[in-house]
Design goal:
alpha+beta; Immunoglobulin-like; 7-stranded mixed β-sheet; 3 domains; binds fe (ii) ion; 13 helices; 530 residues; 24 strands; 25% strand
């Protein structure tokens, strides 16, 4: 024990005082591994002491050099046997089973903040626990410079629902915070009263039309933890004050896969808990019934707490909110298109904000081959034209494409990819964007109305609303500016479109693939308009 103490403190103790007892001496391997100060190798004074002690206990007499050699042989033998012992216990690495990797516990996980009906005074919060947590609570308070906000937080009980996934049973807890103050920093935590998350910060929207940024992501979908995580994290680095994040469908690949959803939550980590999410479902959030019909993934409503102000039957998949002087309309392009068309027009008729952004999954103008969504275009584009929707944010085609200002004059006879025609009006109309944030990539259609496009590029978008200007940036996974433009609303109501020129070269394959990627070939066609 004294050697141990000396080894750690490096106190100048005489070697004679370091003589170990006999029982210790027979445990050279253990001595070497646990008591030396220098990563297992005996300290010189320890060697000297051990040699002296060893010499004293030998049943025959010998000189100091001989004794030292014997000691070295003994040490080497012990070391060798120890190494062999360690080798016996080496096992090849094995992957952790998905059920274990994504197993819920009493500790809250998958905490996500969602946009509220009125972001100036409300928000939604959802999290997951194991199914033995029967009651979940949200505590919140106005944030303070120090930790004093903890002294008197407000508390509400969440609504708890059970979900038996393909991996594990779980409880999802959902709560809405209302009556918050505008433009106020808050903190919240979630838990069962004994097991709590950390305090997550967030801020309500201002009632004044202040400048702000938000993020938009096309399909994340595949290898979400491995390859999409860097995209959302770089987006947060580039726009750390983003007020919400739009996910334009296909967040994951398999609608009822708990592992896929687990990866999505881990990829975004605390960003999900602090920047409100605005997700709309894609075809990969549509699960198949036994009769072949499609329905929304059971995970969707369990794990998001979104506005329920859309058409009946499409709660939390089609909804709208106003943030400052921007109206956002999220649509579910998978089903009930007629119902949503009527609802969309009613929302546009009551338009209370000068800027309008619509988001949904299937693009009005496809960027990829043989993926036209004519029924959707016929239903919604006339409304975008009539009510002057400024920007439409979409996904699905695993490429990038951005139009100029497309007005209502695109002839019906034109297909999705009119050859050699640019029916754009620089002073009115709508900008349509298709983007992809995950790693799955398709081919671009050879002829397109897109003014800027990309293949094989993971992108995210930062959009800023600043008075009479909308500034759009599309950035690659490493933050390079790939595309951008500024829309300016002129006093007479017209729009001015100004593309950015300080962008990196366009990224397209030199030799377009003639065959569809395997993953695309296997994908079932989606028929919006049903
Ligand atoms: Fe899709």
């Amino acid at each position: 024990m004294r050697i141990d103490e000396v080894g750690r403190s490096r106190s100048p103790v005489h070697p004679q005082a370091l003589v170990p007892s006999v029982p210790d001496w027979h445990q050279v391997g253990g001595f070497r591994r646990t008591r030396s100060a220098f990563n297992g190798f005996p300290f010189p004074c320890e060697v000297l002491a051990m040699t002296r002690s060893f010499h004293r206990f030998l049943p025959f007499s010998c000189g100091w050099p001989t004794c030292f050699c014997l000691l070295a042989m003994l040490w080497a033998s012990a070391h060798g046997s120890l190494s062999a012992h360690e080798g016996d216990h080496e096992h090849p690495a094995k992957p952790v089973a998905p059920a274990e990797a994504h197993r819920p516990s009493p500790l809250p996980d998958r905490v996500i903040l969602s946009i509220g009906d009125d972001p100036t005074n409300s928000c939604g919060i959802t999290w997951r626990t194991s199914s033995d947590v029967a009651h979940g609570f949200v505590e919140w308070a106005e944030a303070t410079h120090g930790p004093e906000f903890r002294l008197k937080p407000s508390r509400i009980e969440a609504t708890t629902s059970a979900l038996v996934t393909d991996l594990n049973p779980a409880h999802f807890h959902s709560a809405k915070l209302n009556d918050l103050k505008p433009a106020t920093p808050y903190v919240y935590r979630v838990g069962d009263g004994a097991n709590w998350s950390e305090w997550h910060p967030f801020e309500t929207a201002s009632q004044q039309p202040e400048s702000f940024q938000f993020l938009y992501f096309g399909d994340a979908q595949n290898d979400v933890l491995s390859l999409w995580s860097r995209v959302i994290r770089d987006a947060a680095r580039q726009a750390p004050k983003a007020r919400f994040m739009i996910h334009a469908g296909d967040l994951i690949n398999r609608p009822e896969s708990d592992a896929d959803w687990g990866e999505w939550f881990r990829a975004g980590s605390f960003l999900h808990a602090t920047i409100p999410s605005v997700p709309v479902p894609g075809n990969h959030e549509q699960a198949k019934n036994e009769d072949g019909s499609r329905r929304l993934s059971h995970h969707w409503r369990a794990q998001f707490t979104l506005p329920e102000n859309g058409p009946p039957g499409l709660e939390e998949t089609a909804y709208t909110f106003t943030y400052g002087n921007l109206r956002v309309i999220g649509l579910n392009s998978n089903e009930k298109i007629d119902e949503q068309t009527k609802w969309l027009e009613s929302v546009l008729q009551q338009q209370p904000a000068p800027w309008i952004v619509c988001t949904f999954h299937h693009p009005i103008f496809s960027t990829a081959k043989e993926r036209d969504n004519k029924a959707l275009r016929d239903a919604w584009k006339p409304l975008f034209d009539r009510y002057g929707v400024d920007l439409v944010l979409q996904g699905h085609d695993h490429t990038y494409g951005r139009t100029g200002l497309i007005d209502g004059n695109v002839p019906e006879t034109l297909s999705n990819v009119p050859i050699g025609v640019r029916h754009t009006d620089p002073q009115s109309g709508t900008v349509y964007v298709v983007s992809v944030s995950g790693p799955k990539m398709y081919n671009l259609a050879p002829d397109s109305i897109m003014e800027r496009s990309a293949e094989d590029t993971q992108l995210y978008q930062i959009i800023e609303i600043a008075g009479d200007q909308l500034r759009f940036e599309s950035r690659t996974a490493i933050g390079s500016l790939y595309d951008g433009f500024t829309l300016t609303k002129l006093p007479d109501g017209r729009k001015q479109f100004q593309p950015r020129t300080d962008v990196i070269p366009e990224r397209k394959r030199e030799k377009p693939q003639t065959q569809l990627p395997e993953s695309k070939a296997k994908e079932e066609p989606v028929l919006p308009g049903k």
